[in-house]
Amino acid sequence: MAETTTTGAAPAAAGQKAGAGVLVSRRRRRFSLLTRHDKLILGLMVGIPLAFDLALIWGPTLASVVLSFTNWDGIGSVTAQNFIGVKNYENLFGSYLFFRPALYHNIIWLAFLTLVATPLGIFLAVLLDREIRGTRIYQSIFFIPVVLPLVVVGFIWELQYAPTDGFINNALGLVKSHHIIDWLGNPNINLLAAVVAASWRHVGYVMVLYLAGLKSVDPSLREAAKVDGATERQTFFWVVFPVMAPINVIIVVITTIESLRAFDIAYIINRGKNGLELLSTLITNNSISEASLVGFGSAIAVVLLTISLVPIVTFLVSVNRNPT
Amino acid sequence: MAVAAALTRPRRRPQPRRRQLSRASLHGVLIAMSLVWLFPLAWAVYEALRSISDTTLNGYLSLPSQGLSIGNFTTAWTQANLPYFYLNTLYIAVPGVIVTLLVASMLAFSISQFNWKFNVLVLMIFTAGNLLPAQVIIIPLYWIYLNTPLPDFVSDNGLLYDQYIGVILIHIVFQTGFATFVLSNYMKTITKEITESALVDGANVLRIWWSIILPLCRPALAAMATLLFTFIYNDFFWALILMKTGDKRPIVSALNNLQGEFFTNYNLLAAGALLAAVPSVLVFIAFQKHFVRGLTLGATKG
């Protein structure tokens, strides 16, 4: 089977290369077709959005890095006296009580989505990939939470978690026996409660992406595996899963980024405090909503940026390695 | 070969029955999972349909003693003035989606149909920017918004901060990254010869973009429009931080304040949250195919 795929791919690749050669010469010719006016328009089409992107996304990213070395409070301008070296980072890793918990919370969030929600989504996709009756309906049901605003997801789960009025405590009989579990108030368990709500949404997301990937797998691969006597499980783990490598990377990237972006649910529960500290809520609480420790908050933003670069670079490398 | 066939044949015979059984258990698993998945939503609907006097008397885990009514929905609708907040969302989402599609399609057109030196770099800058968590840039962005003067006819306080135009702008800039990535992947599948022959015929690039490439991209544009609308509709963060006036906020960002002010019990909160979710669910139901295609276009590139 491996043989057939490699021999099948080789002529195609050769053909592509030959095609590319032809294209290059054509491209050169075509460039002369562009008038000066055309070139100006194309330049503006790229230049204007690029300027906005640099000014409102990459500029601020860079500014966060610079500000993280200052004690600026956001008022007036930044002067040389504001620069205090790495003191913000020393405070962050040393004395600041909430940094480590927030970092752990993001890691737990990521771990839960990676180890529980993502595999569940993949499992559902594999089940739904067969020709079964009602597959559309099942897909829609699992997908509904994905289209809801995260804030609404948070509220819907508050109705489950509320101490005396929530479904869970009532269903477990804890309200009657006065052994109420404060799912969202107890700092030892509210993170888990929040990440369960986030998973409700994440599972459907992964399912849809994976299902699309599964549909694009060449059916002859599976048939070949079947002819060779592989069970369905073996076929999935040894044939389908490896050829899905690009989509697996994307799912890992999306899961990681979603975990780093986690904000909305924690914010509406208690503004990201008392057990729900996340890097994202620390940034806004320190620098915008409650205090104006711009420099200190920026240092947290730089930590978040540094971690985010891992999935972002992974994604870019994977995209460039598998061009369309 | 023959031996193998002979060996496997007897084993295969009972397979139809086994397959039926596994089909049944497959549906069993899926139905059970579906019920679990629907439950939180169904519970919210149930709670929203019960009056507060009913649930106070009987507790939430009980059958309705006073029947079900849409009273909480109408109360939430009028008391919290929801139509007003829906309108705020529309002010942001409609221009946001339209401008993002125009800008992203122009960008995708220039980098996919022509061979510039920095094509890949430009695409990377936009894509990577879209993947950054919003909180990484929010501190300097907040400062920029507070310190950018705007003329009176676009901003009633003379700033980018606390204005629709400010929130629209950041949505456009942020979502352009995603939309450009998807659209340029789509446009790469359109042969460059079309652009080339149009140039030979004397069409200028704007004309080619508008009357040739955009019509060819209709499916991708429809998918993107659906997805962008949902993304912008569902956003909580930008309007929360970049707007101060509660009455200007779009519905999703306003929910948090409404929770304390008007949704004083869980029944009302359930009704309000569900009402806020209705437009995204309707868009999803109406354009389900586009929606899913948009997501998977981004992930699988076609």
Quick summary:
The complex is a heterodimer of chains A (324) and B (302). Chain A has 324 residues and is an all-alpha fold.
Walk me through what this model shows.
The complex is a heterodimer of chains A (about 325) and B (about 300). Chain A has about 325 residues and is mainly alpha-helical. In chain A, about 75% of the residues lie in helices and about 0% in strands. The two termini of chain A are about 25 Å apart. Chain A has helices at about 1-30, 35-65, 85-95, 100-130, 135-145, 150-160, 165-170, 190-215, 220-225, 230-245, 245-260, 265-270, 280-290, 295-320. Chain B starts with a helix and ends with a helix. Chain B has helices at about 1-10, 15-50, 50-60, 70-80, 80-115, 120-130, 135-145, 165-190, 190-200, 205-215, 220-235, 235-240, 250-260, 265-285, 290-300. Chain B contains 15 helices and no strands. In chain B, α5 runs parallel beside α8 (about 165-190), α6 crosses α8 and α13 (about 250-260) runs antiparallel to α14. Chain B folds into 2 domains: about 15-70, no CATH class; about 75-300, MetI-like fold. With about 300 residues, chain B is an all-alpha fold. The interface between A and B is large, with 108 and 106 residues.
SSE layout:
The complex is a heterodimer of chains A (324) and B (302).
Chain A: H1 2-31, H2 36-67, H3 87-93, H4 99-128, H5 135-147, H6 150-161, H7 167-171, H8 190-215, H9 219-227, H10 232-243, H11 245-261, H12 264-270, H13 279-289, H14 294-321
Chain B: H1 2-12, H2 15-48, H3 52-58, H4 71-79, H5 82-113, H6 119-131, H7 134-147, H8 164-188, H9 192-200, H10 205-216, H11 218-234, H12 237-242, H13 251-261, H14 266-286, H15 288-300
